[in-house]
Input
Amino acid sequence: MFQVSGSVFELRVNPGKPSLVPPANETDKGLYYLSNLDQNIAVIVQTIYCFKAGDHRGNERVGDVMRESLSKVLVDYYPLAGRLTVSDQGKLVVDCTGEGAVFVEAEADCDLEDIGDIARPDPCMLGKLVYSVPGAKSILEIPPLAAQVTKFKCGGFILGLAMNHCMFDGLGAMEFVNSWGETARGLPISVPPFLNRAILKARDPPVIDFPHHEFTEIEDSSNTTSLYEEEMLYQSFHFNHDKLEQLKRLAMEDGTLNKCTTFEALSAFVWRARSKALQFERNQQTKLLFAVDGRSRFSPPLPKGYFGNGIVLTNSLCNAGELLERPISFAVGLIQTAIETVTDGYMRSAMDYFEATRARPSLAATLLITTWSRLSFHTTDFGWGEPLQSGPVALPEKEVVLFLSHGKERKSINVLLGLPCSAMQKFQELMEI
Output
């Protein structure tokens, strides 16, 4: 529930029966390889896109348009019409059965504007706009792609997507959604998918040339586990262009840095504030994890339209005392070093590390920053114009913070995160600069 005009409003959605949308033409069958960069992030990412009625176009035919264009675009993106399974090597692969993506039409009993601002994730409300497989006990029982189109009384509609992260990273997902939009408008796909993920196969035998602290398990000596027994609060913090520039100046003012990007300054600021809000002890190790787009860093670079995860996790690791007592430039320096570490050799070492150990990144005493601020989901057009707003339904883990671009010129960033109630109150104070 949420507030609208002083009264409590509850979104009511009446979903139809789910159906399967197979590719429009016959496609390749058999097992489809997923690289080691795909293996560690097999989580369902739920997003919504809000579209108002066009000048001469309501939502009467939106279900037919979306279903037909999905069927066509799945010819190029046919692994999305398959099902996940486990290979003889114990890894995730896609069985390209061609049975199709899940598609649901639904109706809401209100106008689109009643939804309000979706800048803050609200799983209870927004979750009604995305299809979830009832009773699924594992990721193998959930199709890689499910789409729900919810029509509103005003003529607008919301597209809700549930997509498995192992199928693509943010850039790949954006290219797929935009390709679907182009298909719906009768246009050719401007960035056809490059499907061969075998170009990122691990070496045989594996060669591990770098330390990979992203997998390091940290002891929770500060006992934050007990804090997380409190009610979780989710909040969005707005950083406009001036505030972001102020953060960069703050990071540069002691003269230890030659340069500083918006991402580096904001990440350092949020990492320090969250560590303080969670009351980490001085000797508590804390880790910052974030993804670097490896597409241009591989040698040779990944082909344009690479369909898969081209991102690699890198990390910064230090004691909370050092993080909080030294100036923000220290944290920025750690982040810059982590970014510079991501070379072709480092990324191939990370893939080989997983091949040899099957380890998963540890999130104990960790902040995982996911950046969507450079992704142009806001340009998606299915024939009703660009979305009024778009964003995630929920954050996948309590350790995740999401950076989202905001505003018409995309120069502002919204920082989305969840914290235990008492920690959120402290964090809000620390966000004032």
Notes: The radius of gyration is 22 Å. DSSP finds eleven helices and 18 strands in the chain.
